[in-house]
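Appendix B: complex inputs.
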Amino acid sequence: MKLQQIIKNNRLGLLFQQGTFGIEKESQRVHQDGSVVTTAHPKAFGNRSFHPYIQTDFAESQLELITPPNKTLEDTMRWLQTIHEVVLRSLPGDEYIFPMSMPAGLPPENEIKVAQLDNPEDVAYREHLVESYGAYKQMVSGIHYNFQFSPELIDTLFAAQNEYQSAVEFQNALYLKLAKNFLRYQWVLLYLLAATPTVDANYFKDGSPLKPNQYVRSLRSSQYGYVNAPEIKVSFDSIPQYVETLEHWVNSGKLIAEKEFYSNVRLRGAKKAREFLETGIQYLEFRLFDLNPFEPNGIALDDAKFIHYFIMLMIWIDETADGDGVEIGKARLAEVAWEDPRQPTQYAIEGEMLLSEMINMLEMIGAGESAVEIAEDKLAMFAEPQLTLGARVVDEIEKAGGYQAFGANLARVYKQNALDTFYMLTAFNNMELSTQALMFDVIQKGLKMEILDENDQFLRLQFGDHVEYVKNGNMTSYDSYISPLIMENKVVTKKVLAEAGFNVPQSREFTSLEQAVANYALFEGKAVVIKPKSTNFGLGITIFQQGVTNREDFAKAVEIAFREDKEIMVEDYLVGTEYRFFVLGDQTLAVLLRVPANVTGDGKSTVAELVAAKNAHPLRGDGSRTPLKKIALGDIEQLQLKEQGLTVDSVPADGQLVQLRANSNISTGGDSIDMTDEMHDSYKQLAVGITKAMGAAVCGVDLIIPDLKKPAENSLSSWGVIEANFNPMMMMHIFPYAGKSRRLTLDVVKMLFPELPV
Amino acid sequence: MKLQQIIKNNRLGLLFQQGTFGIEKESQRVHQDGSVVTTAHPKAFGNRSFHPYIQTDFAESQLELITPPNKTLEDTMRWLQTIHEVVLRSLPGDEYIFPMSMPAGLPPENEIKVAQLDNPEDVAYREHLVESYGAYKQMVSGIHYNFQFSPELIDTLFAAQNEYQSAVEFQNALYLKLAKNFLRYQWVLLYLLAATPTVDANYFKDGSPLKPNQYVRSLRSSQYGYVNAPEIKVSFDSIPQYVETLEHWVNSGKLIAEKEFYSNVRLRGAKKAREFLETGIQYLEFRLFDLNPFEPNGIALDDAKFIHYFIMLMIWIDETADGDGVEIGKARLAEVAWEDPRQPTQYAIEGEMLLSEMINMLEMIGAGESAVEIAEDKLAMFAEPQLTLGARVVDEIEKAGGYQAFGANLARVYKQNALDTFYMLTAFNNMELSTQALMFDVIQKGLKMEILDENDQFLRLQFGDHVEYVKNGNMTSYDSYISPLIMENKVVTKKVLAEAGFNVPQSREFTSLEQAVANYALFEGKAVVIKPKSTNFGLGITIFQQGVTNREDFAKAVEIAFREDKEIMVEDYLVGTEYRFFVLGDQTLAVLLRVPANVTGDGKSTVAELVAAKNAHPLRGDGSRTPLKKIALGDIEQLQLKEQGLTVDSVPADGQLVQLRANSNISTGGDSIDMTDEMHDSYKQLAVGITKAMGAAVCGVDLIIPDLKKPAENSLSSWGVIEANFNPMMMMHIFPYAGKSRRLTLDVVKMLFPELPV
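Resulting structure:
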């Protein structure tokens, strides 16, 4: 099967680089000192009978984190990082993720609990593994790398070749070529990426096979790692032979099931090998890789890319390893695994030749400079073994004073990093914070998620056959289309609310300055707000809190409102405090008070210093990707200071409240304060009623209330509704400046999937 | 009860002018010659047991058109005009609306069928009227004018006076003052607005009381009109006296029910007069007015305004007529009714004094110049009786050669006018055509409708307790919020449709020119469309119908697309014709072919002449308020001509098709051709399935189909879906250039109110 020429002739370089990538990563939950915990899999991670991302491998302590398949490695790595952040932030305070493949600080074997899965067969299989291999060997962790070529590539190659008549046979041959060549040359990847040079002595029941101060490249890939008995040999020459030999070992009882065959390459896409005869191999799983402790997620993006280039190379080269070649490859793997990682490998020349060919391939297919650079960096490591991952790990183990200590140090750093950015998903921080929070909950609880459009915050969620779409965190099928259209239009909103009997400030609309001013008599002496019909930024609004007393002031305010819209409204002004009620279904889930930007004096610091100190709060940033915004000290703030007889250099008295803004928007540095528990229930019920009148499932209701402790009465002096908002903000409730956090995104998940066990 | 001073002192001039106005207008359905029909009330007008706008009065032939209450007379008149347009366009081809109060060409009395209402009591009441008055008298028609002062005014006046302790008593006294003063001075309105100077002789069983060539001001308001027996006198001095006297006549059997009391002022707001003691009079109904034949709707806006000023004047003047005053007023009414309309009235001095006081009032309350002008015009009519409506009607009757002929001529003109603008509601032509069409259907079938926001095309519809909101003709609660959000995003739409198994052209998105060009190899040789991710105007789109063959052309097209959006798409180009499927629920209701702007030669006319001829089509206009758009002859059209070797001055051969545009948009002069019956059912089913996949209730699906007669197959060469649109256009289906009209708005009504009997 020679494909290089076909790829060249048909200019398939780009298609050849397309593929689907998925990563599974095992690791141990550990204590602060790096020793493996004996606690149960955390309940926060929902139910393992369906969880697509967070599973347990062999043991209850052994997390298995699984990315969905992605078209790019970048996306796969973003998923991997995200799942890590979800897990690290959900673990108990005293638990961490161990960053290396070989477990350290193992408890006595009888205290290791196999994963307590719902299916009794799954538990029984693990108990069998304990019997066959001992529990410790099963505790070894690693990275499994799943790869599928673009089906379009396979179709195109099949059409361009004339060796195979059947598409399925061609596809099987293609993937088998990849599998065999991979097994033949896998030692190259081991040399470059192995990272299990040692382990603490208690890992070995019968004493360590390592001499004092001996390091190897990979204990995990050596005979002391996680391998089948040496006699278990399965042929990759063809699918019929593969099926025959694999079924032989199962039928003879040497393997309890096909999945007990631990090859570094697994054929995937069917439950039983025999099915490949009909359906073809769908993708391959490469299981060779040690965790890279320098990477919080266990694997570096450049290394993942290098593995992809290596996979392509195994197809690009004209040779296809035969059975003997595979055996040679497996033998070399064992030899290279046992080499000193700080020394050159005995097979360096073969490695260098292979990587030179890889560079040649990358240039031919137009993979770009950065790809060539990655390959060149790896090529250089044959001459300089101290650059290999294994050698670097040895250095750090020695510096840290031991394997477990090195791992524990890194585990604490990685967890702290995840906690520091608790309000976001670092890899998806281009998306809105509320969507990030929802994604966190979705990943934690185990709904299948597809990001349909990142820029548009569009998600597809699935549980079983039940599919829901979500845009902007809470726009879903649970709302009817007419609800946001009503809420978008303030006039219509007021009419609908008034008709339903809620306290709505009276208002009149005008389409010309003249018309508004002619109606001045209707408003004289009344407290009114004059505002454009449509604006969400507070522009063009004038408030006559004490009542409008002359026609000229009124006309001026009308004129200002007309600058923003071609229709304006004059409405009753309500005295009291504005609260935002977040309603979902039949319940007010959160009540928030928004306070204009402010600082409190300490008798020593200047206003500028107080602002700087307040701005240091971790939640404050530019406001687009942080829950709160830094207080500015621009013209508006300085004018506000001036009205209080202050400048930025004034030193306010201890306890003196200094206003920096008149408006309470969070987007201009305001504080968000949760008042859910303080608010009298009668107002919460009103907000629910208002939401129902809007026909909405999710609604942000703004009420003006003079006294939140007094029960609501049926009069505008007791309360009034000033706005109902669709797609209401959630971040300010989830991460308020003060008061209790309300995890509204989880309520959205529960609304969408009431059947989900959480 | 003196209110003038209170209004002045409290500057209530504007509030005094506020009110609520409703008009009921009776008229006879007639034949082309003006003779009254004997056909049943048309089934098109739905069910009279609930219809709020289109009822029958006494006889089956006697339409009663009812506007809802409005805050301005302008809106009331818009409603009245609209209901007329609905009725005129729904009548059988040979039926018209007679524009005058006295019926002409009456059938024999025994052929007049009383209104066949569902409630047997209503029918029995009418049969009683026939017995008491004869059927002919009941056939007389007129305008009833309903008026309510602003409740805010009444509250303010009540607070400012000290004559009444109870708000209900004050309100009753206010409306009774209005009623009594109206009855005292109503002759003034009769003098100015009466329009029943004569009638054909057969109206009178015992011969006409009119001498040859005698005309009077108002037969309808004379003893020969529609009046109670002379002894039926009811006191308006107070509500208790009103109740006592009215109940006396009912109890004594002189009246069969309170509603048989035909005063020119009726107290309204309760089923029985006795209830006014508790609830107060809510509004008054003034029943004095003859139909104005010069007005298609029976009343002129300026006259309606004048009546309003007259009503205000009846409150403004300090006097309140007593029982004797009311009797004087009724006597004068009878006298003035019998005067020659071309002669001055004997009471001219009283009339002029009253109108001078009205002008004084209008100036005091700031009603504006136009109001004063209306009053001045009427004032002048006391000196010049030939300007009165009655005198003008006499002139026209003489010109037409008879009463019936005059009425029949106008009836035909008014109907033709309504038919000429069949695609719109003239009074609401500021709104979208599709919303106008929906409003037409809603009014025809008798749903209660409130226009919540005209600019926003926002309607509130109600049947019984069932309320639905509609925006832009078909945006309703029947669609879920996520559906339009999915359809708004082409990428998400394609993903969802592909996942559901529909034939979707493959496409790739790019965010940079470089990235797109680097992937050129994927597209080489393929027929592709390159377009911005979001655009609805066809901008930035390039099509390589024969396949893209070089990188430079590809790069140029990509660059053009990036001018319109920051993301672009490259997708498969489908060969075939694009059809728009309009789907509602489980059914494809319409299929439309859009053909680029074109003309067909006749061997004689130039292109410019052919275009002018085609543009003369009644449906073609500027496109914003017409179903089709005129073909332009701008740069693009001339370029298109040039490609065919033509200019605007060329004379195409007979039958030669001349393309004026490449794109098929209706908005650039394209033709809309209904293909619903031609399209193979399998494609209609596909469109329904696509709609369901979008989760939508109403959807416009664009399919590309090479052969609409061949059943759909599961391949892109048989069909492909290129777009799914929320809030799809309806006008092009309702009023296509060619083919059958599909009344989709009626289907929307049926969807919203499946319980509505239509």
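Chain B has a mean pLDDT of 94.
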